[in-house]
Write a structure and sequence with these properties.
The protein has 268 residues and is an alpha/beta fold. 40% of the residues lie in helices and 22% in strands. The protein has a six-stranded mixed β-sheet.
Length: 268
């Protein structure tokens, strides 16, 4: 596979960095073998050079001979995927905001947090009334746990806290469709989540009413902050009778009915 810089672009390699990037990334020229845009190849090429440089610096390994082949493959794959988009794509923005519970009900927002190695995991949640007032919150250090386990722990501890507060009717909002699906259906849970799921189901039976619903992460900011706090705190479990400082911005955001717009795409 031989690839040469187009003649009309060779001068750009004597320009400044930003002008060099601009000219090559916006070029309308095409390579002949394979037939792909120069801009696509150039972009993937410099990205792969950067990746190879990182491997050399941090892992003392380099495979510079493969950089061009990888760049070619990625550029060709990108162009192929783009060519199969037969219809134009439109972007829609949906307003997302935290919605208070109905009268006589309370709302638990819970979340779980786990890093990619599952060695730093936490769970957190907040209970609020129909006016958005902070009733109680918690953060829990889980140590080793998967993200799904952390999500279930958030629901479990939140349900236990609500029962301690003698709450009878509770809306449970999580941003995990896995949790919503598994708690709203009666099928037997499988390992490794079986014990946590069964525990949550038993706790739910002790309320007069529980509704488990999905919410977007944009409306679950306080629970997310509490879960991340729990993952790195030294204490095993901490309860918050009032709004902790690291949740004040999210709490004010929810109390003031602030809206965040979530984008989605569809073919028109």
């Amino acid at each position: 596979m031989s690839t040469s810089i187009p003649l009309t672009l060779q001068h750009s390699f004597h320009l400044g960095l930003f002008e060099w990037l601009k000219i090559n990334c916006s070029s309308k020229l095409w390579l002949d073998h394979p037939k792909i845009p120069w801009a696509a190849f150039f972009s993937t090429m410099i990205w792969n050079i950067w990746l190879d440089r990182n491997h050399l610096c941090f892992q003392n390994s380099s495979n510079l001979q493969e950089v061009k082949h990888k760049a070619m493959g990625l550029a060709a794959e990108f162009c192929s995927a783009k060519s199969h988009t037969s219809k134009p794509v439109s972007c829609f923005f949906h307003p997302i905001t935290w919605i208070p519970p109905q009268p006589e009900w309370f709302k638990l927002n819970s979340d779980g947090s786990s890093n990619h190695t599952c060695t730093k995991a936490g769970a957190g949640g907040v209970i609020r009334d129909q006016k958005g007032n902070w009733i109680g919150g918690f953060a829990k250090n889980l140590g080793f746990a998967t993200n799904n386990d952390a999500e279930l722990w958030g629901v479990k501890v939140g349900l236990e806290l609500a029962l301690k507060m003698s709450i009878k009717k509770l809306e449970v909002e999580v941003d995990s469709m896995f949790v919503v699906h598994i708690l709203n259906n009666a099928f037997a849970a499988k390992k490794p989540h079986k014990a946590l799921v069964n525990c949550c189901r038993l706790l739910i039976q002790r309320f007069e009413g529980v509704r488990v619903k999905h919410t977007y992460r944009e409306a679950n900011g306080i629970a997310d902050a509490l879960a991340k706090h729990g993952a790195f705190m030294e204490d095993f479990l901490v309860y918050f009778d009032s709004v902790p400082d690291f949740c004040s911005t999210c709490y004010s955001h929810d109390r003031n009915d602030c809206v965040v717009y979530r984008s989605s795409f569809c073919k028109t």
